[in-house]
Amino acid sequence: MADIVIVGGGPGGYAAALYAHNFGLDVTLISEERPGGTCLIRGCIPAKQWLQIAEVYSTVKHASDFGVVSSEPEMDWDAALGKKEQTVETLVRGLGGLLKQRGVNVVEGYGRLAGEGKVTVDTSEGTETIEADKVILASGSYARSIPGYEVDGEKIVTSDHALDWPSQPQRVAVIGGGVIGCEFASMLADLGSEVHVFEMMDQIVPGADADGTKTLQRQLQRRGIKFHIGVAVEPANVDGDAITVPFGDESVEVDVVLVAVGRGPRTDDVGLDKTGAQVENGFVQVDPDTMETAETGLYAVGDIVAGTAQLAHVAFAEAIAAVTHIATGETRPVDYRAIPRVTYTHPEFAEVGLTEAQAVEAGYEVETTDHAFNGVGRAIIIGQNQGMVKLISEKDGPILGASIVGPQAGELIHELMYAVGWEALPAEAAAFIHAHPTLAEAVGETLLSATGMSLH
């Protein structure tokens, strides 16, 4: 009998398996395919590799802006696909080796909860039952679709298929202007595709800070992306090689439709009906201090957890919380206030903590400060001086949140992650000096401005 059996080999599952090594626990990890999950195999990692490919292409295309003479770049799509697959393979094989090194027993198959401390696994050799003292469910998520856009993997696709397009689509409609939709739109636009993005809410990246999304949308529009905001699409009409996407009294004709309307929890067929866990709209309710469900000994982490962001690094943190409770009985709750959120567009958009609207809704007397990248030396040097840093603070109180639109925003946001997590006052954070010339100076300037004593 194992100490822990984990159902699901994605970030939540494999992180739990790896972290359990610190306590000397006997762990069995059940994974439907090689461990890695959506993130490593068909999500975060391959998507960001494509974005890097697009950035390199765009950099070469605009090399003359820096006095570098080069021929017009051409995309070798097969080579780019190969690079993506090489990156995925490197990380998946590395993870497999690390799990083996840590003594994790990996069982490849489909796992289902089968009563207290029991999990059945459908493998290529039949069905077996595994027993453990504790069970962690980390079954992950799937790409949602909408009526009128039945996914066929060729003309109408999800992000799963788009990562393996056999050739570059020239005209693309992206249904959904959230993080995934905007990232694919940015990548395709950099490679020269015509891109339309449809979002039925009143802004792209719904739920993000409004000032940040407006800034991001302007930058993406300048690169040719056409946004249709606050509109709902009608069912698509597929006619041969062309697809017509109607909306209101208008329509656009494209070669492929990418449906990017979010991800749903994979909980329909994992045996939750045989447990005492509470499930709402497919998401599992947990004690946020321990990640334990309403059934003692059954834990849930990652994309299936109710009310938490579907992010790999959130799953990592939840896995640590669950294993800590299992191993020690103590709590190590996730500080969801200080979780960075990054949209890897060009430019990047990153946030941490509360948005301005959320802070006001929470009852804070809010003060905001922002500083543009257009005067930042390092940003001008690299030719990416559009965007801004925005700080949200409580009046005479700590920093509540921040957003950054600009170069390397996903890296810069971590500086403000600490400020939010440690409830730093703007004056406390502003006291530290930023190197010149760096992109991080934009953060430092914003902090100085928040104290009422700006420099530039």
Describe the structure.
- The protein is globular.
- α3 (44-61) packs antiparallel against α4.
- It folds into three domains: 2-142 and 264-336, FAD/NAD(P)-binding domain (3-Layer(bba) Sandwich); 156-261, FAD/NAD(P)-binding domain (3-Layer(bba) Sandwich), CATH 3.50.50; 347-450, 2-Layer Sandwich (Enolase-like, domain 1), CATH 3.30.390.
- The longest helix has 25 residues, at 77-101.
- The strands form six sheets. Strands 1, 2, 3, 4, 5, 6 and 19 form a seven-stranded mixed sheet that branches. A five-stranded parallel sheet has the order 8-15-9-10-11.
- With 456 residues, it is of the alpha/beta class.
- β17 and β18 form a beta hairpin.
- The protein has 13 helices and 24 strands.
Put the structure in a nutshell.
With 456 residues, the protein is an alpha/beta fold. Helices cover 32% and strands 25% of the residues. The protein is built from 13 helices and 24 strands.
State the end-to-end distance. Answer: 64 Å
Give the name of the CATH architecture of the largest domain: 3-Layer(bba) Sandwich
CATH topology of the largest domain: FAD/NAD(P)-binding domain
Largest sheet: 7 strands, mixed
Estimate the mean pLDDT confidence.
Answer: 96
- Rg, Cα atoms, Å: 23 Å
Classified in CATH, the superfamily of the largest domain is FAD/NAD(P)-binding domain
Contiguous low-pLDDT stretches (5 residues minimum) are none
- How many β-strand stretches? 24
Please tell me the total number of domains: 3
CATH top level assignment of the largest domain = Alpha Beta
Overall body shape: globular
Total of helices: 13
Helix-and-strand structural type? alpha/beta
Percent helix range: 25-40%
